[in-house]
């Protein structure tokens, strides 16, 4: 890219990345939302995604540490609070564990990360390394997938509630907060990128950063697909579903 885009043109290019590459397009998500996965496959999704959730505040702490402007830090630190909460048992990570609890996976097993697919670990770690190694502009731009997340979250919650009797509004509560947090975070990050990508090279780098992040999300679903939907081989040590159906519900 050699010409400087207007802020509006840059925004259009960034939105176009989502239209082409966001993980809403991945076949695994279509199966998840349309009720075409069995219980064990949904468990595998929740267990692997726990690592993404757990590392988001680590990633945001790295970004925060690179900000030399107190005003910026005051805004960015809210993301860490959203995921960690102020106290034990609060925040997004705790809410994600309510989902894995609801799906009957032992908490210690989830948080031990012993059942993770290797590609989940590598993809998530790549995101953390990216924000440490690239420019602050690229680090912030890489969070812009959140521009697209309210759409997929709405689709996911409605689809899962309709199609799986082993999930409930309570177990999916994680996503409710994201519907307000994600647009707030994405609006701020988009405004930052539009104001601070002032050369064609910086604009190109911001677009590439968002593409990279789409890849981080996409390969996590590739890994789930090849391990649990169309397995050609077992992943040594990874979580093995015990059953394709949830255990029978006991009457209270
Ligand atoms: O459910 C989803 O599809 C989805 C997508 C994304 C995203 O697009 O990166 C995030 C989340 N959820 C999410 O819950 C979350 O906390 C989050 C933080 C970030 C980020 O890059 O800082 N993305 C996302």
TrEMBL record:
Pfam families recorded: TENA_THI-4 (PF03070)
Catalytic activity: 6-(2-amino-2-carboxyethyl)-7,8-dioxo-1,2,3,4,7,8-hexahydroquinoline-2,4-dicarboxylate + 3 O2 = pyrroloquinoline quinone + 2 H2O2 + 2 H2O + H(+)
Domain Thiaminase-2/PQQC: 12-222
Keyword Kinase among record annotations: no
Keyword set includes Oxidoreductase: yes
UniProt pathway annotation: Cofactor biosynthesis; pyrroloquinoline quinone biosynthesis
EC number of the protein: 1.3.3.11
Top class in the EC scheme: oxidoreductase
Molecular-function GO terms, alphabetical: pyrroloquinoline-quinone synthase activity
UniProt entry keywords in alphabetical sequence: Oxidoreductase, PQQ biosynthesis
Gene3D superfamilies: Heme oxygenase-like
Function (record text): Ring cyclization and eight-electron oxidation of 3a-(2-amino-2-carboxyethyl)-4,5-dioxo-4,5,6,7,8,9-hexahydroquinoline-7,9-dicarboxylic-acid to PQQ.
Similarity comment: Belongs to the PqqC family.
Name of the protein: Pyrroloquinoline-quinone synthase
Lineage: Bacteria, Pseudomonadati, Pseudomonadota, Alphaproteobacteria, Hyphomicrobiales
Annotated gene: pqqC
């Amino acid at each position: 890219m050699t010409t400087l885009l207007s802020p509006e043109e840059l925004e259009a290019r960034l939105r176009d990345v989502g239209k082409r590459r966001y993980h809403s397009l991945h076949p695994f998500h279509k199966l998840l939302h349309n009720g075409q996965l069995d219980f064990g496959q949904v468990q595998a999704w929740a267990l692997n995604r726990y690592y993404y959730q757990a590392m988001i505040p680590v990633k945001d702490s790295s970004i925060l540490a690179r900000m030399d402007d107190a005003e910026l830090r005051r805004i960015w630190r809210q993301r860490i609070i959203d995921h960690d909460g102020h106290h034990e048992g609060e925040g997004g990570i705790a809410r994600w564990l309510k989902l894995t609890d609801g799906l009957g996976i032992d908490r210690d097993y989830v948080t031990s990360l012993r059942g993770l697919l290797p590609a989940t670990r590598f993809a998530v770690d790549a995101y953390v390394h990216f924000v440490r190694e690239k420019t602050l502009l690229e680090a912030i731009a890489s969070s812009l997938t959140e521009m697209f997340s309210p759409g997929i979250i709405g689709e996911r919650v409605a689809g899962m509630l309709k199609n799986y009797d082993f999930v409930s509004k309570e177990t999916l509560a994680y996503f409710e907060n994201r519907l307000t947090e994600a647009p707030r975070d994405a609006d701020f990050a988009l405004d930052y990128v539009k104001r601070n990508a002032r050369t064609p090279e910086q604009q190109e780098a911001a677009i590439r950063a968002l593409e990279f992040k789409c890849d981080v999300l996409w390969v996590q679903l590739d890994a789930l697909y090849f391990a649990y939907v169309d397995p050609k081989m077992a992943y040594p040590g990874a979580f093995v579903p015990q059953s394709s159906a949830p255990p029978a519900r006991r009457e209270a």
